[in-house]
Design brief:
- The chain is of the alpha+beta class and about 120 residues long.
- The protein has a single domain, classed as 2-Layer Sandwich (Gyrase A, domain 2).
- About 35% of the residues lie in helices and about 20% in strands.
- It has helices at about 20-30, 55-70, 100-115, and strands at about 35-40, 40-50, 75-80, 85-90.
- It has a 4-stranded antiparallel sheet with strand order 1-2-4-3, with helices on one face.
- A hairpin with a 2-residue loop joins strand 1 and strand 2 (about 40-50).
- Helix 2 (about 55-70) packs antiparallel against helix 3.
- The radius of gyration is 14 Å and the shape is globular.
């Protein structure tokens, strides 16, 4: 199985295929802290990261923003004192695409920089 952190997002248009159940199971093994939640009828990958203060949470948020811009795929982010909630889904297909799993894995990599 390919390492999600080494993959790049692909341009995604309406009608692109959502991940299959089999793919989701394989990908989930690389991002075990993430959960799939359905909000407004749309499946999303979500995770909350914990930090020691707001400044660190904001620095993490900004790095995730830079990643999102470089990959052309953008999450919902809620930055609060001591925590950042991140949600990935593909707006064009109103569901989960391989891109969302790639970005979740890359977000975890960014978090490792802050956990040291």
């Amino acid at each position: 199985m390919a390492d999600l952190t080494q993959m790049k997002c692909e341009a995604c248009q309406a009608g692109a295929p959502e991940v299959t159940g089999h793919e989701a199971t394989k990908f989930q093994k690389q991002i075990p802290e993430w959960v799939v939640l359905e909000r407004d009828g749309i499946k999303r990958l979500e995770r909350v990261y914990k930090f020691k203060d707001f400044v660190t949470a904001l620095a993490f948020t900004n790095k995730v923003g830079v990643l999102a811009e470089s990959e052309g795929h953008h999450p919902a982010i809620l930055t609060e004192w001591g925590s950042v909630g991140v949600a990935w889904w593909t707006h064009a297909i109103k569901g989960l695409h391989r891109n969302d799993y790639i970005m979740a894995a890359k977000t975890d990599e960014i978090f490792k920089e802050f956990a040291q």
